[in-house]
Fold this protein.
Amino acid sequence: MKIIVPMAGRGSRLRPQTFITPKPLIHIAGKSILEQLLSDVIQLIDEPVNEIIFIIGPPIIFDNSIIKLLNKLAEKFETKPIITRQLKPLGTGDAVLCAKEYMQGKAFVIYPDTLVRFKGKFNSLLDVIIWTKKVKNPKSYGVVKLDSRDQIVDLVEHPQKFVSDLAVIGIYYFKKIELLREQLELALKSQKNKSKEFYINEGILGLIGTGSLVSAAKVSSWLDCGDVQKAITANGKMLSFHLKDNVKLISEKKELINTKIISPCYIGDNTYLKDSIIGPFVSIGNNTKIINSEISNSIVQTNSEITNAKINSSMIGNYCKYNGNSNQINIGDHCELT
C-alpha cells in the first residue's frame, strides 16, 4: 500500500499562518494537519504502508527544513518517504502525476486540507473509493452522483441543480492506481492548452467511462481547516474528540504556577504557564510561555511568548511575542507585537 500526498499549495486562505509554515504542517489540537490525517488513514488500513509520496511545491517555499520534517514524519509511521515536486500550480490532476513513476498497485491519495473521523474499515478489493460527507449546501462543494446501486457515475462541481448532498472531501483509494495514471495522462494529452489546470476528477471520470466501479464511503466528521476561523473551530472539535477518546492532551513536561486549565485543552512539552486561565478549546505548542493572560478558543503554536493578554478566537504562530489587550488576534510566525 502507498499513500500519495499532494501538498504543493500555498494555503493562501490561512495566511498569515502559512507565509512560512505550509498549511499541512500547521498544528491543530497538538498535531499537524498532515500528521493527524496520515495517522487516521493508516489506522484505517489493514496492511503495511510501504511508501508515502509527498508532492511538494518549489524550493523557495518547501525548503530542506520541510523535507526533513516530512522524512521524520514518515519515519514515525515506519514507512519510506519519497519527495517529488510540483513546480507550477496546474491543478490536482497535475499534482498527482508528479508522482507517476510511483503509481503502481494499491494506493490512497489524500489532500491534507481537512481533518476527518472515519466510519469503520474499508474494502480494499473495490476498484475505487471516494470518501464523502453529507452537507447542507451542496452548491458550495463538489459532489458525487450515484446510480441505483449506489455506485458513483459522475462528479459535479458546485451543482446549481440538486445532484446529491454527498460532498467529496479529498480522500481516495485506488486498487490499481496505475489505471488512474493512464487516465490522467490521456486527459493531459487531450488538452490543447498544456498550461491550463486539470484535476483528479478528469482521471476518475475516465475510470468510470472504462468500466471501473467507483464506490462512495462516508466519514462521520469532516473539519475544514481552510481559513483561520475554520482552523480554530476544527481545533475545538478535535480537542473534544481526543478528550472522548482518552487521548493524553496535557504534557507532564510543563510548569504551572497559579494557572487554571479549563478542559479540553492541549498543552505541549516544556510550556511555562503563570498567573493565567487557559481554556476551554485551547492548544498551546511546545516551548511556549504564557504569563498573566486569559486565553480561550484559540491556537498558539510553538516557541511563543504571550503576556498580559485576554484573547478569544485567535491564532498565534511559531516564534511569536505578544503583549497586548486585543480580544481577537491573528499573527503568523516570527511576529512581535508589544
